[in-house]
Write a structure and sequence with these properties.
This protein has about 290 residues and is of the alpha/beta class. It is about 40% helix and about 25% strand. Strands 7, 8, 9, 10, 11 and 12 form a six-stranded mixed beta sheet that branches. A five-stranded mixed beta sheet has the order 4-3-5-13-6, covered by helices on one side. A two-stranded antiparallel ribbon has the order 1-2. Strand 1 and strand 2 form a beta hairpin. About 25% of the residues are buried.
Length: about 290
């Protein structure tokens, strides 16, 4: 058959060539491709005429590649592999990939959980394995490559990207908002870095005085107590933003104290992220990233 203007032989001829070359047998190639031995033989003959080159030596039992056929085979196999991989990448459903991450319970409940519907739309093949952290020592346990930490970016041995920049403002349940002297109400304290009532009063120019208070080991528990009307919480924005929007909590002052602390997405400096972890990191930064 005369060579046509197209530079590529028909693909069914090439498929027959690749199978016959790999199996060294036209009959076996036909069985694999769902063709008769005669159809495979015809494809090979047409391909040889098209190339003007003999690709096989016919033997008593099977066939053997000619030097030209042996040189041609790896190129055809590579081309088919490229087509197959590209098709799978673009059109076949990819396997679900799990990203493990650790986060403080307050961030997980108030910031990450509400964002999960957006994650499902943006990265439908990623599922999270989320572990909530209750004590700083929990970060030292073996686990995920990625974690979210609260602090001022000082995390030795870890790379950190800021997610939130904390601003502190007094908040309370609406039932307490009408009190003309809210500073006389019980204060709700959070152990650790957020126990900053003294700093807030000093910065706001208000005199502090002894007052009853309740103390909690997590911000989210203190926030529940504030919503129930137990007292005044020094609310951490943006953690309390959704509650302010829904009027579950109301702010009692216009003054906000900016803190150097915030939430950071971190990983060990020596760790290499998987593709799924990289995609999740980019999604989280694009959704929540705050100025450094």
């Amino acid at each position: 058959m005369a060579r046509t203007n197209t530079p590529v032989p028909p693909l069914d001829w090439l498929r027959s060539f690749e199978a016959a070359a790999r199996l060294s047998n036209f009959t076996a190639a036909g069985a694999e491709l769902g063709l008769t031995q005669a159809a495979v033989s015809q494809h090979i003959r047409l391909l040889e005429e098209w190339l003007k080159t003999r690709l096989f030596s016919r033997l008593a039992r099977g066939v053997a590649l000619s030097p030209e056929g042996a040189a041609y085979l790896p190129h055809i196999q590579s081309a088919f592999a490229t087509i197959g991989n590209s098709t799978a990448e673009l059109f076949e459903p990819r396997a679900i990939q799990t990203v493990s991450i650790r986060a403080p319970i307050s961030f997980a409940l108030l910031m990450l959980a509400p964002a999960l519907p957006d994650l499902a739309k943006a990265l439908p093949r990623i599922q999270l394995d989320l572990v909530t952290i209750h004590r700083p020592a929990d970060y030292d346990l073996p686990g995920s490559v990625l974690d979210i930490r609260f602090g001022n970016r000082s995390f030795p041995g870890r790379e950190a990207d800021r997610l939130t920049a904390e601003r502190l403002v007094p908040v309370a349940a609406p039932v307490l908002a009408g009190n003309p002297d809210w500073t006389s109400l019980p204060l709700l304290l959070v152990a650790g870095a957020r126990e900053m009532w003294a700093e807030w009063f000093a910065a706001a120019g208000l005199a502090g005085h002894p007052r009853r208070s309740h103390r909690f080991d997590s911000f989210v528990t203190a926030m529940e107590a504030a919503s129930a009307g137990a007292g005044v919480l020094l609310g951490s924005r943006p953690l309390v933003d959704a509650a302010l929007d829904s009027k579950t909590l109301v702010r009692l002052s216009d003054y906000e104290l900016s803190s150097t602390s915030g939430h950071f997405l971190t990983k060990a400096s020596t760790a290499r992220l998987t593709g799924a972890e990289q995609d999740f990191r980019q999604w989280l930064l694009s959704r929540l990233s705050a100025p450094a």
